[in-house]
Structure formats: structure tokens, C-alpha cells
Amino acid sequence: MRKQYILLSTVCCGVLLSVDVAAQCIATKDCGSLGYKQSSCDSGKGIKCPFGEAWYCPCDASYIYTCTGTNESPSSAKCGDKYSMCNCATGTHWDSSSGKCVADRASCSIGWIYYSDGTCSAPAAYTTSKTALGVVVYVNPDGIGGQVMTAWPIDKNGNKSSSYVSMYWSTEYVDISSLPNYTSYQTAMTDYDSCGNTDKIIAQGSSSTYPAAWAARSYAPTTETKGKWCLPAAGVISSWYNNRSAIDTAISKLGGKTLGSSDDHHWSSSEHSNRGSWVLCTSNGASQGGLDYDYKNEDYYVRPVLAF
Fold first, then answer.
1. For the purposes of burial, counting CB atoms within 10 Å of the CB of 103, is it exposed (0-12), middle (13-18) or buried (19 or more)?
2. What is the DSSP string of 6-67?
3. Distance (Å, whole) CA 216 – CA 301
4. Residues in the chain with pLDDT < 70?
5. pLDDT tens digits for 159-198?
6. What are phi and psi of 124, to 5 degrees?
7. Coil, helix or strand for 281?
8. Residue 306 contacts residue 133 (beta carbons within 8 Å)
9. CA 71: distance to chain centroid?
10. How far is CA 222 from each of CA 153, 219, 229, 284, 305, rounded to the nearest angstrom?
11. What is the DSSP string of 67-87?
12. Helix (H), strand (E), coil (C) string for 146-160
């Protein structure tokens, strides 16, 4: 008597086949690997798996990830051979907006050195084994994330400069309608929206008209941060002034240029009026958190910041 075979297949399922016939059949994968997930759906919405009594429904549109990317591993949210989210390595978390594992926002202190891998350290623990992006000058109210400032001023092309290079905030007196007007230093130092301000300035005109904001946005010490650097808001440069001892210690550790004590001016992205914008001013801003406003066509320095 010839041997008989039972192949659990949607084509050959439950049929007694001879060796010769069985050789022409390929066993079907389990229902899950075919793109279905077990559910209570009825026969009008799914299939009844030939390997059991459970009903299976098609995967919905959220199951699109392979979980094979950097810092990713398969999760239990699986349907077929795809996932609706992935498990992430320590120090990263799943970001549903980008569909990948991203670095956790660092918990840093003002005056700490910030690195390209999303970590930071006190100046005493500075390491050259990592790429330092700058120094933390502002920390968000919840203590997580903030803004880091480059240790050097930049030139008009957004390049790190070994010497101070000054430039205009604007070559014209125009009140940018999308930017708030801060008419007192008390209100100006509450503005921390560095990148929001920079976006509005750049949308207003070209680099020839708004060189400071365009220079800040052009700064790109790493490929990953290209296009993400901004002209600091008044509250951020005021934080630099108020914490200059700790911040300048870190800047020195990086071999950068510290804040001068006599007559040092750096542009912010905060607008005062059609004619003026706020600047960090060491010579006459001590009583105002380091802030003063001046004409937009004055030549002052630029130090970009990066949100983290």
C-alpha cells in the first residue's frame, strides 16, 4: 500500500494525496504570516484558518514596519510579517510621527556640553571620543530638552569662525507681521522660540536682506543637524548672560570663544519694532538680563542654537 499524506494548504488542505501528487503541492504558511491576525471577525470580514477554528482578519494599514532599522527590534504588535510599531533600544523611543526609533531627549544642565549622539556631560567629563555640538544655554521648564549654542561665532555663510564676524539683522526697516513685537526687556526675555522666529524671518526675505537669520540656519556641523540651527531668541541669549560663568567654562573646554566682558553684542531673533531687534549687550545690558535693542542694520555677532 502506498503512503498517503495530508498537507495543510489552502490548495491541498485535508486531501489524501499520493507521493506523486504530494510532490506537486507546496504547504501554505500559517495564517499570520499570510498577512492576517486572529480576531472575532465573522466570515464576511475574514478567513477561517485551515489550521484551526479561529477567524483571521486582514491586517489594517498601520502594520507597515519591518522593525529592522537602527535601534529597532520586533514587537508584539505584529500582523503577517509587519508591525504597527517596533521595540526600541535603550536611550531611544518609538516616534509614531516618523515611524522609527529616535533618541530620547536628554536631561542636561545649563553649562553642560552637548554631543551629536544626543547625550551631554559636565565640562569636567568632556570627551573627545564624541562630536561636541556646543553648550547647553537653555533648559525647558520640565527639565527635559532645551537649546544648545555653538561655542564659536559664525560668518555670513554659516561657517565656524576663528574670529568675530559681524553682520546685520536686516538691511531694511520692516516690521515682520508674523513676529511678535517685544517692546520691553521684561517681555523679550520670555521669548524662547528661536526656531519659530528664525522660520518667520527667513520666510520674509533672502539672505541679502536678513543675513543673521540665514547665517544661523546655514550652520551645519553635522549632516543630521543641517537646516536645524536657529538664531537664538532673546530669552535664550539672556539665559547665556545670566549663566555666563558656567557656560563660558564649557565654551573654553571646547576651545571656543567666551562672552566678552566689556562690549560684546550678539543678535537674537526677537523683534522690537520695525527698526529694532533685541541683542545680548554686555556693556549696557547688565541691569536688563543682558538685553538691549538696537537698529537692525547694526553689525553684531551670531551664535546659532539647536533645540534638543
1. middle
2. E---TTTTT-EE-HHHHTT--PPPPGGGGTEEEE---TTTSEE-TTSS-EEEE--TT--B--
3. 11
4. 1-56, 106, 260-262, 284-286
5. 998 777 899 999 999 999 999 999 999 999 999 999 999 9
6. -65, -25
7. strand
8. yes
9. 16
10. 16, 9, 11, 36, 14
11. --STTEE--S-EETTEESS-E
12. EEEECCCCECCCCCE
CA 19 to centroid of chain Cα atoms: 60
As a whole number of angstroms, the distance between CA 137 and CA 265 comes to 16
What the block records as the C-alpha cell of 215 is: 547665517
- How far is residue 123's CA from residue 134's CA, in Å, rounded to a whole number? 11
Following DSSP, what letter does each residue of 250-291 receive, concatenated?
HHHHTT--PPPSSS-EEEEEEE-SSSEEEEEETTT-GGGTTE
What residue type is assigned to position 207 of the chain? Answer: S
176, 198 Cβ separation under 8 angstroms: no
- The label of the residue with cell 504570516 reads 33
Backbone angles phi, psi at 34, to 5 degrees: -85, 0
Question: How buried is residue 100: exposed, middle or buried, by Cβ count under 10 Å (0-12/13-18/19+)?
Answer: middle
The grid coordinates listed for 218 are 546655514
Q: What is the pLDDT of residue 248?
A: 94
The candidate with the shortest Cα–Cα distance to 212, out of 255, 171, 246, is: 171
